[in-house]
């Protein structure tokens, strides 16, 4: 079993190094534990550069690769760390070599896992078309604009489809690593690594960490005006039918244009605006759940709880308990 961790030097940052180092350490520790328990099968983990003449890193920490992609005729799993790469046309020559190599290795049977913004390199291969993926919520608008044929699920911490794995953002790559350790080794090895590196097992949502930013990177002025209406008046009773009529379009056409521009249905957008306001109130005030519910435009506790839990993965009370700035349950 051969695991290739892309040693991205150019267009990298500290997160790139952290992903590479974390991947190498956890897989190496997993392989050692696996062997110590008498299991058959050799696991080789290597940092792989694009070429022997890889450019200088702008990163504070430069990787020290074991080999180049030309030395690897076949690999079983490719790890793509976070990076500043945002598309095939904007990469350096070395990073384009990575993109082409990943595509070819996948066609030869390798599986591929991307971490955080590493999704842009993976998407540049074309392997994600018509598939689901996740990435950091902060780059979701940019990713959707560049790759409309990919089904981005920013609420998901990990996706797994067709031998391609992706994860949310920042240090949640550690959860993807445990997921892969369990898949390639076993549950016992994953639990061992979770204990050694003190990582929570089985977390599968990043929704509670996301900050809803409105999806306004589009050119439909009518939809933009409707978004501003929702954000300015979310505490009031809002009718989607009335909003469509305000802009002299039918409800079906309004929904179609709104979804095309933002990726969300109007009602879902309004719900996310309200939940984002509720989250901020839970974080910074002593208001009760019911008080916050009324403040953001809900009158039905059950409906509010269901919508909040669906979007964040936590109940309103659990969210307040976890994130209130004073750490109080009110």
Tell me about this structure:
By secondary structure, the protein is α/β, with parallel strands linked by helices. It has 2 domains: 2-208, Rossmann fold (3-Layer(aba) Sandwich), CATH 3.40.50; 221-323, Homeodomain-like (Arc Repressor Mutant, subunit A). It has helices at 14-36, 93-107, 119-124, 140-146, 173-184, 187-197, 221-233, 240-246, 251-262, 266-284, 289-295, 301-312, 316-323, and strands at residues 2-6, 44-49, 67-68, 77-80, 111-114, 132-133, 151-152, 158-161, 164-167. α1 links the parallel β1 (2-6) and β2. The longest helix is centred in the N-terminal third of the chain and has 23 residues, at 14-36. The model has no long low-confidence stretch (mean pLDDT 89).
Summed up:
With 330 residues, the protein is α/β, with parallel strands linked by helices. It is built from 13 helices and nine strands.
Gyration radius (Cα, Å) is 22 Å
Specify the structural class: alpha/beta
Q: Would you state the CATH class of the largest domain? A: Alpha Beta
How does the overall form come out from the CA principal axes? globular
Mean pLDDT, rounded to whole units? 89
Q: What is the total number of structural domains?
A: 2
Instruction: Tell me the span between the first and last alpha carbons.
Output: 52 Å
How much helix is in the residues?
A: 40-55%
Q: CATH fold name of the largest domain, please?
A: Rossmann fold
CATH architecture of the largest domain: 3-Layer(aba) Sandwich
Number of helices: 13
Query: Strand order within the widest sheet?
Result: 3-2-1-4-5-9-8
Provide the low-confidence segments as ranges.
none
Instruction: Tell me the CATH superfamily of the largest domain.
Output: Class I glutamine amidotransferase (GATase) domain
Q: What is the tally of beta strands?
A: 9
Beta-strand residue percentage? 5-15%
Order of helices and strands: EHEEEHEHEHEEEHHHHHHHHH
Biggest sheet details:
7 strands, mixed
């Amino acid at each position: 079993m051969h695991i290739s961790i892309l040693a991205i030097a150019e267009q990298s940052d500290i997160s790139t190094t952290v992903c590479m180092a974390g991947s190498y350490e956890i897989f190496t520790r997993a392989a050692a534990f696996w062997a110590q328990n008498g299991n058959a099968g050799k696991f080789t983990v290597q940092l792989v550069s694009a070429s022997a003449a890889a450019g200088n890193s702008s990163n504070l920490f430069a990787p020290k690769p074991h080999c180049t992609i030309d030395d690897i005729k076949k690999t079983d799993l490719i790890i793509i760390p976070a990076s500043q790469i945002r598309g095939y046309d904007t990469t350096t020559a070395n990073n384009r070599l990575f993109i082409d190599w990943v595509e070819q290795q996948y066609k030869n049977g390798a599986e591929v896992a991307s971490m955080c913004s590493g999704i842009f390199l993976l998407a540049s291969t074309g392997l994600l078309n018509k598939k689901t993926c996740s990435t950091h919520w902060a780059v979701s608008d940019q990713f959707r604009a560049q790759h409309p044929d990919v089904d981005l699920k920013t609420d998901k911490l990990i996706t797994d489809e067709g031998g391609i794995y992706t994860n949310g953002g920042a240090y949640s790559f550690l959860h993807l690593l445990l997921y892969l350790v369990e898949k390639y080794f076993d549950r016992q090895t994953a639990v061992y690594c979770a204990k050694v590196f003190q990582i929570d097992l089985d977390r599968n949502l990043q929704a509670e960490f996301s900050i809803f930013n409105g999806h306004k990177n589009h050119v439909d002025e009518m939809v933009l005006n409707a978004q501003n209406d929702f954000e300015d008046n979310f505490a009031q009773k809002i009718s989607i039918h009335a909003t469509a009529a305000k802009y002299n379009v039918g409800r079906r056409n309004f929904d179609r244009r709104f979804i095309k521009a933002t990726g969300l249905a109007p009602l879902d957008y309004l719900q996310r605006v309200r939940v984002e306001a509720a989250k901020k109130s839970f974080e910074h005030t002593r208001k009760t759940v019911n008080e916050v519910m009324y403040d953001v435009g809900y009158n039905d506790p059950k409906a509010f709880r269901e919508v909040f839990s669906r979007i964040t993965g936590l109940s309103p009370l659990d969210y307040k308990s976890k994130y209130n700035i004073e750490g109080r349950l009110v």
